[in-house]
Structure formats: structure tokens, C-alpha cells
From TrEMBL:
PANTHER family: ANHYDRO-N-ACETYLMURAMIC ACID KINASE. GO terms for molecular function: kinase activity. It holds the Pfam family AnmK. It comes from Pseudorhizobium endolithicum. It comes from the Bacteria. Pathway: Cell wall biogenesis; peptidoglycan recycling; Amino-sugar metabolism; 1,6-anhydro-N-acetylmuramate degradation. ATP binds at residues 13-20. Belongs to the anhydro-N-acetylmuramic acid kinase family. Coiled coil: none annotated. This is Anhydro-N-acetylmuramic acid kinase. Catalyzes the specific phosphorylation of 1,6-anhydro-N-acetylmuramic acid (anhMurNAc) with the simultaneous cleavage of the 1,6-anhydro ring, generating MurNAc-6-P. Is required for the utilization of anhMurNAc either imported from the medium or derived from its own cell wall murein, and thus plays a role in cell wall recycling. It catalyses: 1,6-anhydro-N-acetyl-beta-muramate + ATP + H2O = N-acetyl-D-muramate 6-phosphate + ADP + H(+).
Length: 377
């Protein structure tokens, strides 16, 4: 189809649970055809290396620095992404020459918007060489150089998806409950407002891992046997992040899990599921209007306790809650799809960020493209 480009998006999110791969055909505007998706979980050993890299990244003062284990982890991460692309192409009967570009997120190991410092591990030139496909990466940096928060970037894609929704579902609010949660409000007239809305699954994951050696609370099974600890919930929900007049994007370390003596395993999981749901409603006060509908994507939509809390809280405020799947989207693939979409926008010189999304002064492009030959464009 005229003007359509085919791109692969690669996302390794703040949960550090694996690599998501998705294919999108798009004109970089409102025409979007979603293709196949592949989720490849990291093994426990590599997750541990990524966790170590978060600690090592604390020493970074300039985003090109790679202290401690970071250089080795970046190489390993990039090769794993290259292997993921190769497997994805093979499984779907595709070849590299059918793909215009890869949108490569990498792994965020440090994000300090107040210092305009954001670091995503991932070697774009190496990935381009390994795959034989042009790679668009570093999509957050230009926004930060121009005074933006560098996140969230998915909103441009949410806006393209929302274009296909009927008017009665608007204003609509996409909510991504990943490691950290972020939301995108889309008004009836196309107004777009987005921000990080608070902790998502990261606190739950860290809590059940530390207390029971389990990586995440599948289906909310642990939480369903517990009770909310009101003081603990209020400690999180009373954080300055929620009361500050201005929104800012979050780093994984901005919210830390409870101390072991603050709750039993199930009560802690129950409380943190509630905190993840209530955070979204607390953040909604920054929106100009109550959303008619919340569309939930990201792994948190699979935690039944969290989703029930969200449905109750949103319902009290007069809004409906649906999963991405209820509307024909894919809640696991959405972020990887977004990176494919953003890569095409980057190639076309279209803006990735907007005053209403990252707080940047005016709509702004971003991303750097590396060709397999080594050229940068
Ligand atoms: N079946 C499930 N039941 C409950 N929770 C789940 C389930 N599957 C995944 N999750 C949660 O979702 C998390 C992964 O979500 P997702 O992949 O959306 O996050 P991410 O992309 O890494 O993060 P971010 O959006 O912050 O970058 C897991 O760490 C886990 O906590
Ligand atoms: C710095 C960084 O990687 N931020 C992530 C993180 O995970 C969720 C939330 O915080 C969001 O702001 C962002 O990711 C999504 C994909 C985004 O930029 O839209």
C-alpha cells in the first residue's frame, strides 16, 4: 500500500522480564496494520545480570559511560535482541529485506529527568550489523535535550490506535500497567495528554521475589489471599509524586518495595496491587476531563486483584474499564508495536513527543538511525 512501511519493534521494559517483538505496517500516521508478536522471556541468570546493571548504572554521569558490568551486559543484550529478530523472521516466514527498520528500545538502566539523563543499554550499530536491517534507537534523548521528560513515548501510538475507536468511547485513556504505569488521555477533539502514573508491577514483583522467591504474582493469586494494609497503602499513595503540581517521568528506583516486617507475603501483594490501581486514579486529577473508558494493556492487566480494584475505583468515578483485547488490540504487544511505529515516524521526520506527553516545548522528532553498513542518518 502506498506510503506504508514495515517495521519491527523491540521492547525490553522496566519489568526486565524479556524481549517483546512485534511487526507493524504503517504510514507513520493513522494507518496501522498490526502483525505478529513474539515474547521471549529472559532466563533467571540474565535477569540477575540486568538487576546488577541497574546498580552499576548509578555511577553514570554522562549517558555514553558504561561502568562496571554495563559494557558486557549491553553487548549480550544486543546479541539477544538480534537472535530474537532472527527467530521472529524465521517463525513468520519473513526475510530481512522485507523490513524497512527496527525500532530498538533497549533496557533503561537509569532515568533522571531532572538531570536530562536517560540511559538505555543497547548497541544500535551492532544490532543493524547483526540483523542486516536499519535500526532506529535512542528515541528518548532528543526530547530530554529539549526540556522534555524523555517518557512516555508510547502515546503517539495510542493516538493512532484511538483513531479507530468510536466517538462514544471517548475521551479514552490507555493505561499501560508494566513495571511502571503510564497513561495516555485522548480527547474527543484529538487532545493528547500523557504521563507516568505511578508504580505498576515492579513493587509487586520485587515483593514476592524477596519474600517467596517467585518472580511475579501470577493472576494475582497471592494477593487474592491477603488484605490491604491501610498505612502501607497510604504511605505509597501519599508520596510527593502524587501531590506535586507538575508531572514527571519515573525511574524504576523512585518507589521501593516494603520492608520485610511491614506486611505478610499475601497482605503485601494485596496492598501493592491496590496501590497500582489507586495510583492510576490519583494521577487522573491531572486530566482535563473524566475518561469514558480506560483501556488497560501491559502485564498488570493479568493480575485479577489489581484489575478488580481498578474497575471499582474507576466505576465510582463514572468510568468503564476494558482490556486492550476487549477492543481488538493486543495488551502484550502494544509497547513493542509502538516502537515499530515510532521508528517509522522517526524515519519520516515526524514528531515523537508533544507538549502534552513529555512536556517538551513543541512537537519534536527524535531517534537515530544506523544502517547495516555502519552509516548513521
Ligand atoms: N499472568 C500474569 N499475572 C499477573 N501479572 C503478570 C502476569 N504476566 C505478567 N505479569 C506482570 O507483568 C509484568 C510485565 O509487564 P510488561 O511486560 O507490560 O512490563 P514492561 O514492558 O517490562 O514494563 P514497562 O511498561 O514499565 O516498560 C511482569 O513483571 C509481571 O509483574
Ligand atoms: C525511561 C523509561 O524507560 N520509561 C518507561 C517506563 O516504563 C513505563 C513508563 O516508565 C514509561 O514512561 C516508559 O516506557 C514506555 C514504553 C514509554 O516510553 O511510553
Amino acid at each position: 500500500m502506498n506510503g506504508m512501511k514495515t517495521a519491527i519493534g523491540l521492547m525490553s521494559g522496566t519489568s526486565m522480564d524479556g524481549i517483546d517483538v512485534a511487526l507493524v505496517r504503517t504510514d507513520g500516521r493513522e494507518r496501522v496494520e498490526r502483525g505478529p508478536f513474539l515474547g521471549l522471556p529472559y532466563d533467571a541468570g540474565f535477569r540477575q545480570q540486568l538487576k546488577q546493571s541497574l546498580a552499576d548504572a548509578q555511577a553514570i554521569r554522562d549517558r555514553s559511560e558504561r561502568p562496571g558490568t554495563l559494557e558486557a551486559v549491553e553487548k549480550e543484550l544486543t546479541l539477544r535482541h538480534a537472535a530474537a529478530v532472527s527467530r521472529f523472521l524465521k517463525e513468520n516466514g519473513l526475510t530481512a529485506d522485507q523490513i524497512h527498520a527496527i525500532g530498538f528500545h533497549g533496557q533503561t538502566v537509569l532515568h533522571r529527568p531532572d538531570q536530562a539523563l536517560t540511559v538505555q543499554l543497547g548497541d544500535g550499530p551492532m544490532l543493524a550489523r547483526e540483523t542486516g536491517i536499519a535500526v532506529v534507537c535512542d528515541m528518548r534523548a532528543n526530547d530530554m535535550l529539549h526540556g522534555g521528560q524523555g517518557a512516555p513515548l508510547v502515546p503517539a501510538y495510542h493516538a493512532a490506535l484511538a483513531a479507530s475507536l468510536p466517538t462514544q468511547e471517548k475521551p479514552v485513556c490507555f493505561v499501560n500497567i508494566g513495571g511502571i504505569s503510564n497513561l495516555t488521555f485522548l480527547g474527543r477533539d484529538g487532545e493528547i495528554i500523557a504521563f507516568d502514573s505511578g508504580p505498576g508491577n515492579n513493587l509487586i514483583d520485587q515483593w514476592v521475589e524477596a519474600q517467596a522467591g517467585i518472580p511475579f504474582d501470577q493472576g494475582g493469586a497471592i494477593a487474592s489471599g491477603g488484605s490491604i494494609v491501610p498505612d502501607l497503602a497510604e504511605r505509597y499513595l501519599g508520596a510527593s509524586f502524587f501531590t506535586a503540581p507538575v508531572r514527571r517521568s519515573l525511574d524504576r528506583s523512585d518507589f521501593l518495595p516494603p520492608q520485610p516486617d511491614e506486611a505478610e507475603l499475601a497482605d503485601g501483594a494485596r496492598t501493592l496491587a491496590y496501590v497500582a490501581a489507586a495510583s492510576i486514579l490519583r494521577s487522573v486529577r491531572h486530566l482535563p476531563e473524566r475518561p469514558a473508558l480506560y483501556v488497560v494493556c501491559g502485564g498488570g492487566r493479568l493480575n485479577r486483584v489489581l484489575m478488580k480494584d481498578l474497575a471499582i475505583l474507576a466505576g465510582k468515578a463514572g468510568s468503564k474499564v476494558a482490556t486492550a483485547e476487549d477492543l481488538g488490540f493486543d495488551g502484550d504487544a502494544m509497547e513493542a508495536e509502538a516502537w515499530a511505529y515510532l521508528a517509522v515516524r522517526s524515519l519520516l521526520g515526524l514528531p515523537l513527543t508533544f507538549p502534552g506527553t513529555t512536556g517538551v516545548g513543541s512537537p519534536l522528532g527524535g531517534g537515530v538511525c544506523y544502517r547495516p553498513t555502519g552509516e548513521r542518518s
